Amino acid sequence: MQTPARRVITTLKAPVVVPSLVVIGALLVVCGLWPQEAGEWFQSVQAWVIARFDWFYVLSVAAFLAFLVIIAMSKFGDIKLGPDDVEPDFSFLSWTAMLFAAGMGIGLMYFGVGEPMQHYLSPPSAQAGTPDAAREAMLMTFFHWGFSAWAVYGVMGLVLAYFGFRYNLPLTFRSGLYPILRERVNGWIGHAVDAFALIGTIAGIATTLGFGVMQLSAGLHEVAGWNTESTVFRIGLVVVVVGLAGLSAASGLDKGVRRLSELNLLLAILLLVFVAVTGPTSYILRALGDNIGNYLSSLVDLSFHTYAYQPPQEEGWFANWTILYWAWWVSWSPFVGMFIARISRGRTLRQFVVGVLLVPTAFNLIWMTVFGNSAIWLDTHEAGGALAQTATNVDALLFRFFDYLPLTRALSIVAIVLIGVFFVTSADSGAFVIDTIATRGAPDSPVWQRLFWAFLLGVTAVVLIVAGGLKALQAMTLISALPVTIIMLALCYGLWRGLQADQAHYSQDMAPATSFWSGQHWRFRLSRMLHRYSEADAREFIAQTVAPALENVGEELRAAGVPAQVDAGSGGSVQLTVPASGQRDFVYGAHVLIKSVPAFLPREAAEPDPERPHAYDVSVFFADGREGYIISYLRPEEIIADVLRQYERYMLLATDRRTDLLKGAPEHAGPPPTDA
């Protein structure tokens, strides 16, 4: 009688979770009991950091963008985020919808009208309220929400995805430091790094949730006329958003988060098209071309511009806009980067970089043009400056903008739904990310953990709303951007080293002596290649041909003093293992592979893969996750020759210093999950 599998109660890692909860609790006490004092102190520290390190933020963000472009254009761009034969977990549409919703969706709703209007009224160098001011307003808005912003998220996401899926390390912040710290990532340094990321993620999401409630309240006041200023009402909004986020998180990433993200994207596109069609359409289309051309031609200059020779007209503009944005994107990068990494398994580095940089940026630029240019045009042609008068009240500005478009009430309702769904997706994806960090990427975490983190986000937001400590926690989050930026530069260095090791490892040629087949017994070999195996045939081949061949090699190795063992696994698999100290073991294994029968008719090719006829074969697998190949047509002596061929390659790699990182990386245990 089989013993039932033990039910997992928790996968949380105490060295990461306990210190994080203690620090979050302390911050809530300080920001809740002394909100004014904490806000003043944190904001003074934030101002000090920005004033002295604005040049560092500018150069770092420019370096992140250049780094991603170099990777995409290099030979490393073909490397996959995972084993060579892995396919993407999500379709391109679902992937872009999720990274868009988790990354900047709510920001577009909040600043789509607000930022262009504020730059128009107070531009860095042009005269306020002029066509030059409008042009400069859109240029700076594009710059703040374009390639540079997504480069910050892209670097963090790429590092985590690469080391998580390619090196088989846990999908956590510390894994990106593996090339630098090696095994020390499993010690107190790694715990501290993950705890730091966990605290920053909780603080950032809770702060955004709190500020988002303010905009939702303003929208509901405009639409329904309710009194939304009360604390009780705002707490109720947090409860509703967190409750929906908990349901979404409990349903899983592939259901809840994906479906809500796709709904978000659909609603956003419908709203975008409606505003473009009912607004000043011709002006918007002309402005879009000017905006994109102006942005692309100015990108290099803006990326390195620190206003050293000619300060902006308004004192503090550079610090309060560009540097504050860079700090905010960096402070959010552990959360958004982790989420992007989680949904990007199976894509090549080039696909990742192009997708993360180009797709969201293109949508952001179109969105900002439609809403920003429309608001500026309406304010000067129809509103008589009414929007300019509301520009400082960003919470209500979007709904004031809708007053000058058809179907105002319907637009406001759609916007409220969109903002609400954006907040739900931010909260539920945040719960997934927080749980991933807290468990070191453990799979199959119990549902209650994700619900706990969603609950904690809600409690944090409620406490700060009631006590008025949101600005203090926001300032603290932005202060943390400085050490995170330094860590991200180290991550770039580690990723480059990892890619070099990867290239050296997977491009290693076979030794000339491995061309072992001379053409003998070719009829036997051909008949085996043409024979369609059943599952029983495949298992029999492993048991009667592969296993004895591996045993013969194992006996010879042991006779020579080399420890070697042959083990049978589940599904009829078998593997030869030669343990090695300080590097990956040598593994040569064989398992039953299920594959679709080749289609010879268009009708057959059009059938879904599960409905196509299937056959079985025998494929090899290795410890480093390389793609296997079919061996069911080999004779015993040829299998032995193939084992020696792989062992000789293993010995050559052991002496190649370029592959040091991969030698010690965790092994891909056992055969791939595609066996019978």
UniProtKB/TrEMBL annotation:
GO molecular function: transmembrane transporter activity
Signal peptide from the UniProt entry: none
Pfam family, one: BCCT
Swiss-Prot/TrEMBL keywords: Cell membrane, Membrane, Transmembrane, Transmembrane helix, Transport
Keyword Transport: yes
Predominant subcellular localization, coarse grouping: membrane
Name by which UniProt lists this protein: BCCT family transporter
Species the sequence originates in: Dyella telluris
The organism's taxonomic lineage, starting at the top: Bacteria, Pseudomonadati, Pseudomonadota, Gammaproteobacteria, Lysobacterales
